[in-house]
C-alpha cells in the first residue's frame, strides 16, 4: 500500500506514538481522525495538524465510540482505509492487580483491537477495498514485561490477535501489521518512574535498561516505511528479534537470564542503592 491520500483512524492519538503517527500520516498526504480518552489532547493534535485532521474523545474500547469514529472520519474524508489500534494502558502490575485493573488492561490493550476489527474488516471485504489494520502491541508481547503481569499478558494477546488477523485475512486484501517497540519516550513509559505502585519503577527500568529509548517520531517513521511494504512485525528496536530468537531457541535459559535481570533491577531500586 502507498501510504498517501488515504483515510486513517489513530487511537491513543492525543500524545506519544499515536500523535507522532497522526502527524506522519498527515505529512505524507493522508487524512486522519485522532481519538483519545483525553478528548482535549486529541483536539489539540487535530488543531495543530490542520484541516486534514479531526478528533474524537472517548474510550476507544467502547463499541459506540468505534462506530462514532468511523462515522465521523467517513463523513469528513471518505471511506476508511487504515485503522491504527494504538491506545494502550499500564493498568495493574503484579498478582495483587485487581479484577478491575485486569479488565482495563485487557479491554484497552486487546479487546479494543478486536472490537474495531470486527467492524472495519468486514466493511473492507464487502467494499472490495485494500484495508490496513495496524496493532500497537509491545516488545513485551514477544518477550515479557518484568514487573507487570497485566501488561505482559495483554500485549501477548494483542500480538496473537494480530497474527490471527493476518493469517485469516491477509490473502483477502487486508494488510495487518503489529508494532512491537521497546522503550519509547512517552508518558506511558516515563510515568513508571513516578508511580507509587510496587514494582512500577522496576518495570520502567527493565525497558529503559534494555536498549535505546527512541523518540515517538522515530517510531512513526519506521511504521510508515513498514506499511509501504506491508511488513507484519514492525520492530523499531531490531535487537528485539535477537532477544526473541534466543527465547525460542532455549526457553529455560532465556527465563533464567530474565530472572537475573529482574533481580539486578530490584537490587538497584532498593533504598540506598544506585539506580
What order do the helices and strands come in, and which of them pair?
Blueprint: E1 7-11, H1 16-27, E2 31-36, H2 39-49, E3 53-57, H3 63-77, E4 82-85, H4 99-127, E5 131-136, H5 149-169, E6 174-179, H6 187-190, H7 200-208, H8 216-228, E7 233-234, H9 239-249, H10 251-269
Question: What does it look like?
Answer:
The chain is α/β, with parallel strands linked by helices. It has one domain (7-240): NAD(P)-binding Rossmann-like Domain (Rossmann fold, 3-Layer(aba) Sandwich). The chain contains 10 helices and 7 strands. The longest helix is centred in the middle third of the chain and has 29 residues, at 99-127.
Question: Could you write a compact summary of the structure shown?
Answer:
This protein is of the alpha/beta class and 275 residues long. The chain has one domain (7-240): 3-Layer(aba) Sandwich (Rossmann fold), CATH 3.40.50.
Strand order of the largest sheet: 3-2-1-4-5-6-7
Order of helices and strands: EHEHEHEHEHEHHHEHH
Inertia-based shape: globular
Tell me the count of domains.
1
Estimated radius of gyration: 18 Å
CATH hierarchy, class: Alpha Beta
Q: Could you give the count of β-strands?
A: 7
**Gap from first CA to last CA:** 45 Å
Largest sheet: 7 strands, parallel
Which secondary-structure class do the elements indicate? alpha/beta
The low-confidence runs, each spanning 5 or more residues with pLDDT under 50, are: none
Query: DSSP strand (E) fraction?
Result: 5-15%
For the record, the CATH architecture stands as 3-Layer(aba) Sandwich
Tell me the CATH topology: Rossmann fold
What's the helix count?
Answer: 10
Helix content: 40-55%
Protein name: NAD(P)-dependent dehydrogenase (Short-subunit alcohol dehydrogenase family)
Family: Belongs to the short-chain dehydrogenases/reductases (SDR) family.
Organism: Rhodococcoides corynebacterioides
Keywords: Oxidoreductase
